[in-house]
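Forum: Protein Structure Q&A
Topic: Joint prediction for protein chains with partners

I've read a bunch of threads here and the consensus seems to be that you should model interacting components together rather than docking separate models afterwards. I'd like to see that in practice. Below is the full input, 730 residues plus whatever partners are listed. Could one of the regulars post the assembled result?
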Amino acid sequence: MILPLRLDAVAYRGIIEPLTLELEAGPSTVLLGANGAGKSVLMRLMHGLLAPTEGKVSWSGDNPRRHQAMVFQRPVMLRRSALANVVYALKLAGVADAQYVARAALAEVGLKHLAHRSARVLSGGEQQRLALARAWALHPEVLFLDEPTASLDPTATREIETLIRAFDAAGTKVVMATHNLGQARRLGDEVLFLHQGRLVERSPVEQFFKQPASQEATAFIKGELPWL
Amino acid sequence: MAVTRILIATLLCLSLPAHAQRFITVASTTSTEQSGLFKHLLPAFEKKTGIQVRVVALGTGQAIDLGKRGDADVAFVHDKQAEEKAVAEGAFVDRHEVMYNDFIIVGPKSDPAKAKGHDVVGGLKKIAEAKAPFASRGDRSGTHAAELRLWKDAGIDPQQGKGSWYRETGSGMGPTLNTASGMNAYALADRGTWLSFKNRGDLTILVEGDKRLFNQYGVMLVNPEKHPNVKKADGMAFINWLISPEGQKTIADYKIGGEQLFFPNAHN
Amino acid sequence: MHSILEAIRAAVGLIASGDATLGEIVLLSLGVSLSAVALATLLGLPLGAAIAVGRFPGRRAIIVLLNALMGLPPVVVGLVVYLLLSRAGPLGDLGLLFTPGAMVIAQTILILPIIAALSRQSVDDAWREYEEQLRSLGSEGAGAALTVLWDIRFSLLTAVLAGLGRASAEVGAVMIVGGNIDGVTRVMTTTIALETSKGDLPLALGLGIVLIAIILALNAAAYLVKEAAQRRYG
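Posted by a regular:
Agreed with the consensus. Here's the joint model:
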């Protein structure tokens, strides 16, 4: 078990002010905030892609990297088949029987029929599903998603959201950044609201939307938050 | 590292055909090569002995240097003074005279300096007086050395004309003739290169037949004591063949347009 | 204009006659240059990728140096390699001087910076796209660099072609280390130089046209490969 994750007074170059929080297994967490609030940077600090300039990020348990996965706003695929892309990730993680596991993952996301198509010629929605398959195949404890549907059309968005819900139901801790209020409401259990690099509010999702505690959250929900 | 091994293997493979053949390396001059003599001469030798002769053509000075460094087995050049000096220094052994050809002075048909005739020293004096353009090789070659000796005999320092009528190209006979042709200048050339030169423009032979235009060719072996890698036996086979009656006849048989270029004069 | 027409006639005549000597010279030229390209690619691509992905002190200075070395004068490279391979030099005992092997060495040195510098640029650009995802999956350092290198292999073709162009065009290096020996180390460029100095300009130009035609053909083939790959892999 690599959760809970502790952030102790973690800061990053003025983009993230010293921030302390703990993430536990269970509820899906949505990082909410306007563009430039620091959601992406915070997520990268958690996942280890960035090193904090102050403070400490600590996972519990052994080998935290192996039990996390991340899906980015734009999927990054190698110039290989869809199947080969998933196999690549599995081999890196040292998973046995990579081909078999990969096929199962593709089937989960409904891409079995495109297994041998070159990944980069797939549509945006298909590639993002492939990214999820790649993450799913690793059976991570924590799945980070950085604005996963921001570049997709409504149909593709729905497909991705369905898959994310499935992840959540299967027990994976979902941590998702979005600025889409409807999506946050649909997928999140709790909300971490960021404003100008500070964690301003943390509450269960319905409470956040019905009774926001802070001025900034209220303004954000009402859509009045000025762009930075 | 595996990469280094692949590298060396590839290189040796590419060089292999070059290595498999029995051969000697002869340092000679560009003017000799460009006269076409080797295309005529070497196949006869190779047929007889099975030894391939690889000619690296440079200027006489460079050719002798090549031998001194041990990068050639034999030197076949035409600057008696430089050759004898090199032998005296111990860099070469077994020097033999092989053949001679002659130099000529070429120039524009109109002959503005009125140099035409059979007196090379007189001709050069007239060229200098008229400040007519003259293209020199300026490259430490046998031809260049001969040219400088002739200026000296005429009592003229051509460097006085440097930058105006005396033009040093620093290159081989062919390129120098190209330059002379382009500038309508006079030049000293060996007859061999001239006869096979195709870009004559307005140039023609103006001075020839003077005994001072005599150009002696010599052949010598790189001293095996200085460079153990020298192919002594095969190198001597080539030298001995060149001065043998058979070799001498082959040299005499080489003609361009019916004209003999080289005159064998080996003294055994 | 007259010489150019003569040159074209000479070129056509050369090719049509199927001249054996010309064939030998062309094959040797291609052999030497393609070998040099192969070696320089083998060494240069990983080098470029390593510099692109790595972070170490002096990295920027090395990048500038590598870019500057693209302009190495061929004749200087030839001179240095000659001094190394000469009997009087450190590697004389290899007996490589005046062989095609020496020419390959010289050309490899000449084009290695080109291939390394251009691939460094390509990998650097691609790295921006791939870095986060690869690191998220646990791929770092040399492994990640090689993954990116392989993934962008078709756009690296440009770097390789640049190297091939430089190698097949140069005459200074191969002249000095090869000696332009008839039938052994005579390649297209040294033959053109020789014919020019003999004053046989139409023949020299004709050979030049043949050389350019070959390089054009190779480039066209590479372009088609790149296009096909683009369609297949995206």
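Residues 100-136 of chain C form the longest helix (37 residues).
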